Amino acid sequence: xxxxxxxxxxxxxxxxxxxxxxxxxxxxxxxxxxxxxxxxxxxxxxxxxxxxxxxxxxxxxxxxxxxxxxxxxxxxxxxxxxxxxxxxxxxxxxxxxxxxxxxxxxxxxxxxxxxxxxxxxxxxxxxxxxxxxxxxxxxxxxxxxxxxxxxxxxxxxxxxxxxxxxxxxxxxxxxxxxxxxxxxxxxxxxxxxxxxxxxxxxxxxxxxxxxxxxxxxxxxxxxxxxxxxxxxxxxxxxxxxxxxxxxxxxxxxxxxxxxxxxxxxxxxxxxxxxxxxxxxxxxxxxxxxxxxxxxxxxxxxxxxxxxxxxxxxxxxxxxxxxxxxxxxxxxxxxxxxxxxxxxxxxxxxxxxxxxxxxxxxxxxxxxxxxxxxxxxxxxxxxxxxxxxxxxxxxxxxxxxxxxxxxxxxxxxxxxxxxxxxxx
Length: 423
Hints:
It is built from 5 helices and 34 strands. By secondary structure, the chain is mainly β. Strand 13 and strand 14 form a beta hairpin.
């Protein structure tokens, strides 16, 4: 009975693994280099936090995450604003929810009497860029406070399969920081972004240079969210800074995580084509559920913006491998050979849980093997094969010993016969 059960389990595992759950427990990892915590829903989708969550937090929290990750924040049961790279410091009971479009997980924490010294003596006011299009430059124009202006190939919040170039003028009051997938990267005017990833360009513009000793730094650090909101109405209290964010996603090749498509800033979805067939759309977003080649056309919701097109391939199917010498139940005798169905597939082989070097195409050693196939979209398929060598083949190594032994016996017998003297 146990043997039948074993074969049944191996047979099921032989097929590519693709498990989806509605609710998953978030995995926590501490990053020693930065002193931050990461909360994973899977290997590609996570939120990085400057503070450990799950209990009472007594400090300002800064979250960063990429565009592939769906993140929402709830404070005292109501949805609260959350922005990658922004601060959370208001007292209350919070729940952070993370999703990859299929699975989701959440973690709760409480902020009590937070230390806001990390924010400094400036109050950050979130602003939106004003966006237009320059026919002369052939680029989008984004302005902050009606004065500071920069140029980009694509609109704000866009997804693109092309490299992105950004030109920014110098301004002593402007601080610019760039992030890729939550990690800070270098930035300069004219920089080209071509590597796949989620990018955030943060613009912090100092709007006041007035110093006022009405509040000390210690008093400012003790301000609640309400106090800061009231104080920010008067710029003479302390420095005020406007912060605006320009973000975009660069993709390359097939995608398995690109499910929800939101239009760029200033646009709405005009049409969606899947394998040449028109799809039913909502102007505000589109959920790509089927695999295939998509062409999405965005129309400007404000005058002067050109049409914007996104082409991408959705692929959520695990890659498949075929095998020579493998019977039903994942059993192989003496040897088996691995065959990739696509050149885009990479293979990793584990014997007894230990990775094998070079991932050979043919295997002829006894053991239980786990073979994992990956494709360029990030999908994975796993197989388990139990290789056994036949008794006859296993005894082949005895043949040379038997022959050598027989030869030794014959030589010894010959020697004895030659040296026997009859009296």
